Predict the structure.
Amino acid sequence: MVSVGNGDYQVQTNALPDMDVSDAPTGCCPRFDPAGWDGRKLHFENKLFVRATTQSLLHVPLNMGKVFTRVQGHIEDAGAQDPDGYLVLSRDLSATESEHFFAVSDPVQDEEMTTLSGDFITRIFEGPHRKTGDWMHEMEVAAKASGHRVDRVFMFYTTCPKCARAYGANYVVGIAQLDQRSELEA
């Protein structure tokens, strides 16, 4: 049993918090319910992902819609979408390039496959994407408060901008991969 943030729960390898993907009145992104996502600890062990990159100009995405549509189409064609939820981890590599990890249940043809392993902590944010830099800093502070350093910080943008407007909330899940060394060891 682990105690993090808002309660006690059992950490299961490669498991994600519950998500109702059938609640999608826009016909696009499911409505995101942040319950169960804030203050969680996730443990991945060779969790399978499709990795894709997008181009940006000063951190503003240029081809994200095209890339996400392609990848999602390939995932659907392969029958590799997790029926219980979805997860796309995104992070900027530079001002001109971002990488995205799409969680899948099986290999996807014509896409770059990779795995992730490690311990992760989550935090829910709500607001415009321009706050991402502040949220990344908050994730580093949260990791340090738990006695760890951050290896990488990802953002899970739970809905596209159109659906966020329709639902009246733009939830973003910060997901920090913890460095295996504690803050004291580093």
